[in-house]
Design a protein that fits this description.
With about 325 residues, this protein is mostly helical. It has ten helices and six strands; from the N terminus they run ααβαβααββαααββαα.
Length: about 325
């Protein structure tokens, strides 16, 4: 079975044809020969067909010739996310827009990789500004010259659809990999924003716990800003930044008096230094294997330093 193939990098022959058919339609309207309305209508239709073909070709050239990326506001992204997360839709997170990769796209991508930059020129500059604005990708911002990746890949798809991450696929582990500056943090910010703005299920908002050993500032600021926007509580814990971090008191809650000493004993050598102010508690025969302690006297920094000579010497 044969299939058609269109060379998207050839000269735009449709533009002169559009001009010729348009001029013929105008000439017929002026001279008004016999049956001129029918001929004028036919030439106008041919001008429309050729104009549409030239417009599509220029639009394709514009989408692959510029280093641009789509920009979307948080408000619009949240609106899309809420629509996809609704029970009436697919109950999925929104990851962006894309298209199904076919053999046609592979052929165009291969052709672009073998062409020189001069052969990937965009639409001509003599086109009216209104037409240039119409053929440029909407809601895009220019990228820096040192930006990595190939932004022209999005220009290969005629129609992009929404890419979704179903909630049913999240109970297991999810691995996101990519080289430096490939967009991993932007993806984390997008997912975190949707979780923060996600409507509460059963009256309680879904919690979001982030463990970031790298300490990405952009991710931190984005999550903090969205929590402030939605009125949700934001808690930040980092021992390296005590002025910004919350405090966790391991002795704040306990059921019996031996629990605080037992917790401290797990952090300090109870058989040596901690035994100076901790005494073994009496346990039932069934619990002899588990050793616990209770505080003999109030635990103070002074008593702990006396119990640990090497600490006091320092």
């Amino acid at each position: 079975m044969s299939r058609s193939y269109e060379d998207m990098f050839r000269p735009t022959y449709e533009a002169p044809a559009f001009a010729s058919w348009s001029a013929a339609s105008v000439l017929l309207t002026i001279t008004q020969p016999p049956l001129w309305p029918a001929f004028a209508f036919a030439t106008l239709g041919m001008a429309g067909i050729r104009g549409k073909q030239a417009f599509d070709l220029y639009k394709f050239r514009a989408s692959i010739s510029a280093q641009r990326a789509e920009f979307i506001s948080v408000k619009d992204a949240v609106a899309i996310s809420k629509r996809l997360l609704s029970p009436k839709d697919s109950k999925a997170f929104w990851l962006g827009r894309g298209f199904t990769w076919t053999q046609k796209h592979a052929e165009n991508a291969r052709r672009i990789m073998y062409l020189s930059p001069d052969e990937l020129a965009g639409p001509p500059k003599w086109l009216p500004k209104a037409i240039l604005k119409a053929i440029e990708p909407p809601d895009t911002v220019p990228l820096k010259e040192d930006a990595i990746g190939v932004s022209w890949i999005h220009g290969l798809g005629e129609v992009e659809t929404e890419i979704r991450l179903p909630l049913d696929a999240l109970p297991g582990h999810t691995l996101i990999v990519g080289t430096t500056r490939a967009g991993k943090t932007k993806l984390y910010i997008l997912l975190s924003t949707q979780i923060i703005h996600k409507e509460a299920s059963k009256g309680t908002p879904d919690p979001l716990i982030i463990i970031d050993p790298k300490g990405d500032k952009d991710w931190l600021e984005a999550v903090k800003k969205e929590c402030e926007r939605t009125g949700r509580k934001f808690l930040y814990f980092n021992p390296a930044h005590p002025s910004k971090s919350i405090r966790l008191d391991p002795l704040a809650n306990w059921n019996n008096m031996s629990e605080p000493a037992t917790r401290i004993g797990q952090l300090v050598d109870a058989d040596g230094s901690f035994s100076a102010f901790a005494c073994p508690s009496r346990a039932s025969p069934q619990r002899k294997r588990k050793r616990s302690y209770h505080v003999c006297s109030p635990v103070r920094l002074e008593s702990m330093m006396r119990a640990v000579p090497e600490v006091s010497e320092r």
